[in-house]
Automatic annotation (TrEMBL):
<feature type="domain" description="Glycoside hydrolase family 3 N-terminal">
    <location>
        <begin position="19"/>
        <end position="303"/>
    </location>
</feature>
<dbReference type="InterPro" id="IPR036881">
    <property type="entry name" value="Glyco_hydro_3_C_sf"/>
</dbReference>
<protein>
    <recommendedName>
        <fullName>Glycoside hydrolase family 3 N-terminal domain-containing protein</fullName>
    </recommendedName>
</protein>
<keyword id="KW-0325">Glycoprotein</keyword>
<dbReference type="InterPro" id="IPR001764">
    <property type="entry name" value="Glyco_hydro_3_N"/>
</dbReference>
<dbReference type="InterPro" id="IPR036962">
    <property type="entry name" value="Glyco_hydro_3_N_sf"/>
</dbReference>
<comment type="similarity">
    <text>Belongs to the glycosyl hydrolase 3 family.</text>
</comment>
<dbReference type="InterPro" id="IPR016181">
    <property type="entry name" value="Acyl_CoA_acyltransferase"/>
</dbReference>
<dbReference type="InterPro" id="IPR050226">
    <property type="entry name" value="NagZ_Beta-hexosaminidase"/>
</dbReference>
<dbReference type="Pfam" id="PF00933">
    <property type="entry name" value="Glyco_hydro_3"/>
</dbReference>
<dbReference type="InterPro" id="IPR000182">
    <property type="entry name" value="GNAT_dom"/>
</dbReference>
<dbReference type="InterPro" id="IPR017853">
    <property type="entry name" value="GH"/>
</dbReference>
<feature type="domain" description="N-acetyltransferase">
    <location>
        <begin position="606"/>
        <end position="671"/>
    </location>
</feature>
<keyword id="KW-0378">Hydrolase</keyword>
<keyword id="KW-0326">Glycosidase</keyword>
<dbReference type="Pfam" id="PF00583">
    <property type="entry name" value="Acetyltransf_1"/>
</dbReference>
């Protein structure tokens, strides 16, 4: 081959021979062959050496194992990241390798379903950037050139199904620029040598790309022009199924080069490499690839090579002699890194160290999943080609008469290490997608404490289900005397920390970030109290965890009207005064009486956090259980503005949910209430506050994505108000279709209450009952079909002397004589919904004006307030909300008692 062809494909990945000495010999032979053939410069030879579970080069004597990228991030030290990167690069450089395929610069914005896992440092762009640059500088300091990957990010891919489907980035360029591209941009500015462009698709507004590495819009546009990268661009391996199947290796090679790739990566089959060379040759011959394009790539590759190699260096690799010198210090660095990375996320019941929970003569059970062993694990070298059978083998006898059941062999050494510390009293078996078997149940009953290991349980769902099943059994254990006693359970994630990081039902949770022997040795030291764990979860998950750990649990008491009524009035005033001057509070004109329904069909329970010495209330939450519909409602939750972020709201919310869950016949939860009509849901009138509140309630377990917009509205200056001419005409035309009638009193209850059953909205029956029993201050405006007298529409009218008005503070907030219209119900069989709704409200306004009122409140309306018809009548939005509801059976965030 001539020199130029080698320049375009100079990469050997995944070296067949792993031993350092064999690798050094192979690399030397390659360089010697190139030199003897007359190549002007040495070959660029690169490997993946990311540490953790991704290492192309391993030697149990000379090459050290270090934590994965996320494991390093868990140490919290970019200085340690630099040291580990430098040591890694020194070791591969000693073998003659001059190009490391790292660092990973992907921001893990979707941690739940990503193949990257712990290969990235986390989900925070700035943190990923800081560690990525530290890794890059460490590599450079050892004399190797660097490669950022996987541009423009593999951190939020959507997978459609089979291997032939291309994973897709759906984020817009603007979204990518604010997050995923930050580490790439910073690494480029700090001198990144090369960039691998991924084979994923991109689909968003103004961007439709089948494969990023074949797109000039991505490479020449986004990478070269926008990010100003002039280093070497390397394609994703063109042998990936989705790419080779859809385009072919030969055609893909031409497309990659024309898109701006300087090097085309083909790392598996020699036949595919030959196909790529033929495609390249044909592309040049057919003038599809210009010679200037080849020279441009040649310039970049030669520039990169000049930074990392020369013939003097390539033909005289330091080899084993240097590795022997480095071994002691690198071994110490490896141990330090792993010891610093082990993270105890939670230990609620203080199960650590194991001596806290298990006596010397008792047995410990270790349950490990069947997983593919890591190449860098000594246990993997003992693994036979035949995968172990799915069902656990029979118990084996170990040294010291250990009673142990062997599972996946990659974890056997962990079991042995645990057993040595416990005089052999360790039981060990594996678990599979077959779930919890009788053998597992027997061992759980037999053991005094259990350790369950998981490895990417978010992608291997059987592990998640198995662990939760074991947790349930441990929570239901009983002593011989019949007393319930929770059996100690420790869950260890040996890969992605996201498995159970945000699941508080797993009380003791540890993360090791990979399952190499060094990592598991550090784990054992933590379990036995020989090592104090200092690792922290990476990125935003760490911030969430810190908030969770720092929550205070306030004493929540039942609201006592005699004791707390005046204090609640004071708290309401404090909350109102705490609002910005331009922001009208939903609590304006509310009092403690506004929350007391005193209805036999509604079970109400209200809660306070208070200072028992001064009687001052710090927070209040009211709940109602509407028996007729089986709906449990949180109708208000507010905290003294000077005492927010102290977990008062969390404590009140948790008590409210526990109480509602205990109601017999509970079917659904609702956030926001029609009665009382104060908070109809999450207030949404102000952007920043809306975002904060939605996020807070989402974190408490509410699915805010399924919310329904509702609002209260007001029309003022009724004394000078007249109906819109066109609308009045429409109402006259509706006369033959509907007959309108204003009725008063309980005599009309049967027909009215039957009609409102056509709507399943919570609180309707209670509103109408209040109106029907108060004929002096309330009426029901009805619409019927004249031909058969069928009731098809109703709305409640009320004035300021009504009992109903006590639960609508907006009535008093107007500071003038005001009437109210509430809870329209239109039969679903009516085709003229808007006409009938507007007719009922229009007639209601006429009636309210006739009574001398100058304002009219619509206290509960569906939608977002953008009603052309209602606006034309003179209504403006007073308060807007998002009503949130869910089935009680699906509520998963059950707070602790």
């Amino acid at each position: 081959m001539d020199g130029k062809k080698l320049e375009l494909d100079p990469v050997w990945e995944d070296l067949d021979r792993e031993a350092a000495e064999d690798t050094a010999q192979l690399v030397y032979e390659l360089q010697k062959t190139a030199h003897d053939a007359g190549h002007p410069v040495p070959l660029a030879i690169g490997v993946d050496q990311e540490n953790g579970g991704v290492n192309s080069l391993f030697d149990e004597i000379y090459i050290r194992q270090y934590p994965s990228a996320m494991g390093i991030a868990a140490t919290g030290s970019t200085d340690l990241a630099f040291e580990v990167a430098k040591a890694t690069a020194q070791e591969i450089a000693a073998c003659g390798i001059n190009w490391i395929m790292g660092p990973c610069l992907d921001v893990l914005t979707n941690a739940r379903n990503q193949p990257l896992g712990v290969r990235t440092t986390g989900d925070n762009p700035q943190e990923v950037s800081a560690y990525g640059v530290a890794f890059m500088k460490g590599y450079k300091d050892a004399g190797v050139v660097t490669m950022g990957k996987h541009f423009p990010s593999y951190g939020n891919l959507e997978f459609l199904g089979s291997a032939l489907d291309v994973p897709i980035i759906t984020e817009s360029l603007e979204q990518l620029s604010l997050s995923a591209l930050v580490p790439f941009r910073n690494a480029i500015n700090q001198g990144l040598d090369s960039m691998m462009v991924g084979g994923c698709a991109m689909s968003s507004a103004g961007l439709n790309v089948m494969h990023a590495c074949l797109s000039d819009q991505v490479i020449d546009g986004l990478l070269r022009t926008d990010l100003k990268f002039d280093g070497v661009v390397v394609s994703e391996c063109l042998e990936m199924e989705a790419l080779s199947h859809n385009i072919g290796v030969g055609g893909g090679t031409v497309m990659a080069i024309n898109a701006g790739c300087d090097i085309v990566l083909l790392c598996r089959l020699f036949t595919h490499q030959q196909e790529a060379i033929r495609g390249l040759k044909l592309g040049i011959e057919n003038s599809m690839i210009s010679k200037s394009r080849i020279r441009e790539s040649l310039r970049r590759v030669l520039t990169m090579k000049s930074k990392c190699t020369s013939w003097e260096k390539a033909l005289n690799p330091p080899g084993i002699s240097l590795l022997s010198q480095l071994q002691p210090s690198h071994t110490a660095l490896s141990t330090k890194a792993y010891n610093s990375s082990i993270t105890v996320v939670r230990d609620k019941n203080r199960l650590l160290p194991l001596s806290n929970i298990i006596e010397a003569e008792e047995e410990l059970l270790l349950l490990t999943p069947l997983v593919k062993p890591l190449a860098a694990s000594a246990a993997s070298r003992a693994l036979s080609e035949t995968v172990a059978a799915a069902s656990p083998p029979e118990p084996a006898v170990w040294e010291r008469s250990a009673s142990v059941m062997s599972g996946e062999r990659v974890f056997r050494e962990l079991g042995r290490t645990l057993a040595r510390q416990r005089s052999g009293r360790v039981l060990h078996t594996s678990y599979t997608a077959n779930g919890l078997r009788p053998v597992h149940e027997n061992l759980i009953n037999r053991a005094s404490a259990i350790i369950v290991l998981t490895a990417d349980a978010n992608r291997n769902l059987y592990q998640h289900g198995f662990t939760k099943h074991v947790s349930m059994i441990c929570n239901m254990q009983y002593t011989t005397g019949g007393e319930k006693r929770e059996k100690p359970l420790i869950v260890v994630s040996v890969s992605s920390p996201y498995d159970f990081a945000m699941d508080p039902s797993i009380g003791t949770y540890i993360c090791t970030y990979d399952f190499t022997e060094t990592a598991l040795n550090s784990l054992v030291r933590v379990l036995y109290g020989e090592l104090s764990p200092t690792g922290a979860l990476p990125g935003t998950i760490s911030q969430s965890q810190k908030l969770d750990q720092s929550k205070q649990h306030w004493l929540v008491e039942m609201f006592n009207e005699e004791r707390d009524a005046h204090a609640l009035d004071d708290l309401i005033k404090t909350v109102i005064e705490g609002n910005p001057p331009t922001q009208r509070s939903e609590l304006s004109s509310a009092t403690s009486n506004s929350f007391l329904l005193r209805d036999s069909e509604v079970l109400e329970a209200h809660f306070v956090v208070r200072n028992s010495s001064t009687q001052v209330l710090y927070g209040f939450c009211c709940t109602y259980f509407f028996k007729a519909t089986g709906t449990g409602v949180i109708a208000a939750l507010f905290v003294d503005p000077t005492r927010r972020k102290l977990s008062i709201g969390h404590s009140l919310h948790n008590r409210a949910i526990r109480t509602l869950l205990q109601r017999e016949g509970i079917k659904r939860f609702q956030l926001g209430s029609r009665l009382p009509s104060i908070f109809l849901g999450i207030p949404t009138g102000h952007g920043a506050e809306r975002k904060r509140l939605r996020s807070w309630f989402a974190n408490m377990g509410w699915n805010t994505a399924l919310s329904r917009p509702v609002c209260s509205m007001i029309a003022r200056n009724l004394s000078s108000w007249t109906p819109p001419p066109g609308m009045a005409e429409s109402l006259k035309e509706a006369g033959p279709v509907f007959v309108f009638e204003l009725v008063y009193g309980w005599n009309y209850a049967t027909e009215v209450l039957d009609h409102i059953k056509t709507s399943n909205r919570q609180g309707l029956a209670e509103v109408y009952k209040l109106a029907l029993i108060d004929p002096q201050a309330c009426g029901i405006l009805q619409a019927k079909r004249p031909e058969d007298g069928t009731l098809v529409g109703t709305v409640v009218l009320y004035n300021m002397q009504s009992r109903l008005s006590e639960f609508v503070p907006a009535m008093k907030d107007t500071n003038e004589l005001t009437g109210g219209i509430s809870s329209p119900v239109i039969s679903p069989a009516v085709g003229e919904y808007s006409t009938l709704l507007q007719g009922l409200i229009l007639l209601g306004m006429r009636q309210i004006k006739k009574q001398g009122c100058n304002a009219c409140v619509l206290d509960y309306m569906d939608g977002d307030g953008k009603f052309d018809g209602l606006s034309a009548m003179g209504f403006d939005v007073l308060h807007s909300f998002e009503e949130v509801s869910c089935d009680a059976a699906t509520w998963t965030r059950v707070p602790p008692s």
